[in-house]
Specification:
The chain contains 19 helices and 14 strands. It is of the alpha/beta class. The chain binds beta-D-galactopyranose.
Amino acid sequence: MRSFLKTKTAIALALSVTAGSAVADGHGGVEVLHWWTSGGEAAALNVLKDDLEAQGIAWTDMPVAGGGGEQAMTVLRARVTAGNAPTAVQGLGFDIIDWANQGALANLNDVAAAEGWDDVIPAALQQFAKVDGEWVSAPVNVHSTNWVWANKSVLDANGIAVPETWEDFAAALETLSAAGVTPIAHGGQPWQDATVFDAVAMSALGPDGYRSAFIDLDPEALGSDAMKEAFDRMAVIRANVDDNFSGRDWNLATAMVINGEAGFQMMGDWAKGEFLNAGEVPGEDFLCFRFPGTQDQVTFNADQFMMFDQGGNVSAEQAALATAILSPSFQSAFNVVKGSVPARTDVSDADFDACGKQGMADLAAAAESGNLFGSVAHGHANEASVKNAIYDVVTAHFNGEFDSETAVDELVTAVEIAQ
Ligand code: GAL
C-alpha cells in the first residue's frame, strides 16, 4: 500500500512538473527522467548535468526515487501514455528493447556513426542499445551485482579475512552474529532481494547452471538441486539481517556498513558511490570483493539513456546528450564517482580506485572467458514479465512464505507462466 501511494505521488509529481516545464518538448534543453537520488548517485549525475550545462543545454531534472527503477518505469509509462514522453530516460536491458519495439525511441545512428560507437561499445551492451541495426540508446556505464561491501575495521576486529568460499562467508556471518554485530545490512525490497539472489544463485549453480536457468529458462535447471541450494543459501542470508530490514532503501543499508553497524552488504557497485560520497577509501575503510564462489563471473547491468522520439528526428539536444555520455573523458569522470566502469572498452583505468580497477579487469576477463551474464535482478537476463515472476518467488521465500523446496517448484511454474 505504501509503495502504491508513493508511486501515485510520483506520477502526480511527474505530470505537474512537466506541465510547467518549458523544455518538455525537447526544444532548448533536455528533460531527464532517472532514479539516481541517493547521495552517491546524485553526485555522479551532476557530472553529466554540468557537462551539458557547460554546452549551454538546459537540464530539467525528473528524478523518481526507488532503487532499481521500478517506480521510474511506472512514471515513464504514464508520461508516454499521456503523449508527453521525457527527452531522455534512464533504462535497463530488456526494457530498452521493449520501448524500441514499440517505436518510442529516436534513432541515434548518425551520432553513433560520427562517434564510432560500433568499435568501442562492447557486444554485451550493443545487444541492448541497438535494435534491428538501429542505435536507440546511449550506454552510460557497466555495473555488476555480484559484489560484497565490507566494513574493514569490523572485519579486522573480529579476525575475519576476505571469504573465498560460501563456507567461509557463512562462518564469517556466524562470527559477527556471535559478536553482536549485524552480519548483513539489507533492505527488504523485491529488487534488493533479487540483487542478492543474482550472486547467490551464481555461487550455487555455477556459470553453466546460471545460463541454463536464467538465460535459457530451462525448466530442469530452474528446478534443479542446485537451485534448492541457492534458496537454502538465501535462507542463511535472511537469518543474518537485522529485524528492521523490511522496506529499507539500499543506500541506508550501505550506511549501516559505513557506520560499522553491520559487517557486509551484498549489492551492485553503485554502493561504492555511497562509500566515496562519505569520504571513505577502499582498502582502508571498506573492502570490495566478489561474492564468494563467483570470483570468475560477472553478473552485469548497464544504465543507458533512451532518447524518446519527440516527433521527428533526434533533436540537437538529444544528440548532444548522447555524444557527451559516450565521450571518453565523461566515461572516466562519471564512472569514477558512480562506482560503475566505462561502457567503452578504450578508457584508461588510471583515474579509478582499486575497486574500479578490479571491476574493469573482471569485466574484460569475464567477457573474454564467456563468464559475463546479464543480471536477473536488473533486467538484463529476461523481459520484465519473467523478471517480475522471479522477483515474486525470491521475495516470498526470503520472507518465509515458502521453504526452499516449495520456492524451487514455484520458480519453475512462475517462469513458465510468465513467458
Ligand atoms: C540500478 C541502476 C544503478 C543504481 C541502482 C540503485 O538499477 O542500474 O545505476 O542506481 O539501480 O538505484
